[in-house]
Amino acid sequence: MTHLSEAPIGLFDSGLGGLTVAREIMRNLPDEKIVYFGDTARVPYGNKSKGTVVRYSEQILRFLLTQNIKAVVIACNTASAMALEALRDKTDLPVLGVVSPGAVMAVKATRNKRVGVMATKSTIASESYVKEIHRLDPEVTVVGEPCPLLVPLVEEGWTNTKITDEILQHYLDHLMAQQVDTIIMGCTHYPLLRNAIARLVGDEITLVNPAYETALALKKVLDENGLLNTTPANKADPYPYRFFVSDEAERFRDFAGMILPVDVRSAEMIPIEKY
Amino acid sequence: MTHLSEAPIGLFDSGLGGLTVAREIMRNLPDEKIVYFGDTARVPYGNKSKGTVVRYSEQILRFLLTQNIKAVVIACNTASAMALEALRDKTDLPVLGVVSPGAVMAVKATRNKRVGVMATKSTIASESYVKEIHRLDPEVTVVGEPCPLLVPLVEEGWTNTKITDEILQHYLDHLMAQQVDTIIMGCTHYPLLRNAIARLVGDEITLVNPAYETALALKKVLDENGLLNTTPANKADPYPYRFFVSDEAERFRDFAGMILPVDVRSAEMIPIEKY
Question: What is this model's ipTM?
């Protein structure tokens, strides 16, 4: 019988953006197996209501639990903001979202106690970054900026165009006017715009990538629970990473190729509504 | 017992964009009742696969049939392109999409036999406008341009901004380089950009609005089937228009207020996955 520590991490996202979180886990916890689910049939979550996002997230949790996982990572900022508590009520496994690790780093990084958050409309409306930051330090001012056009721009591959710069400038102007010195890239797609954002805001601003912080937080949680895999995944299992989606998997490979450090052959489509 | 002609039209869309089609039916067939369904929980369809769009459309048809409708209008260009045949197999009621009426008008309007189509990626990839136009006139050259950023821009209310003009110009440059003299606005949201598009392309280009053409085609089909309502809806029924959505209905009123000529109080949320 294999030990629970050799079981995979269950990771999910509203679509393929969460592969940026998978990437950080692959880099920082190279011995861990991953089961990834992307809800590509119902993407995006960023404009949807809490009730709908919770219902979808619970279906996905039920699917992931069929894969004998040892922990759950909600890679989607919107689902982390809206469904983390609901999922913790449904399983005894450790459940991590991306919001808390991002908030912890932002509070550490800010010197003037003014933090900006770029995110989807739903994440901003949920105020979950605000609540999480204020739990850590009530004196930090949090300025939220909904950036609904950035996901479509990234998905078009327009990460390095004049138009994207102009739209970024529009969003960043609002944050810079509030003198933030730290900005959380609070949506899975935004780290793919990191170079453009860094160029526009300059060296004085710290950019926080919740995907990276979440990989480190996951390592800590696994360690504390005796769940770190000590059997290197790449040797024991030729396919340490498995990918599932809810829409046909055709477009998966291109987007995965843009993001992941490993070659991903394909994703399997599953009928998520049935879970 | 009421006559079938007094039954409502069942109209559906991936979200709220189809309200532009409802608007044209309200204006051009003022005696008809409408049951509208917007799949706001799973919007958009424009990047999804045919299998998924057909499955979602069949669920919606099953819901609409519970509302004792007399005809079905697929207001969504993507669903019209992908699911029209599948829905016609499932019901004996007349089923209209927006693609065919738009294609008919474009073939009538073009003088140089070069037609451009602006639409979502899925609609362009389906080639349904090309097939429909070639069925009518094989000599017409059809130039498709996927415009995936326009829906998010319209939903942000950025219909009249410099950035939207630049993105429109990017898409229109490709069409104008192919010397089209007629452009189909092949997505429900695009008529809301009509003024900007007309300004950028100039008077020489004919813009075709499939929503308007569909309302006229619907009138013809109802008439041919003895289904035109001769009991004016507004007098017989204080609520001739009913609206259903799959996500919480909160944001419905604002968007509906932007588009519809009548005041819409609310939409009812239904669990579409159960149908």
Answer: 0.85
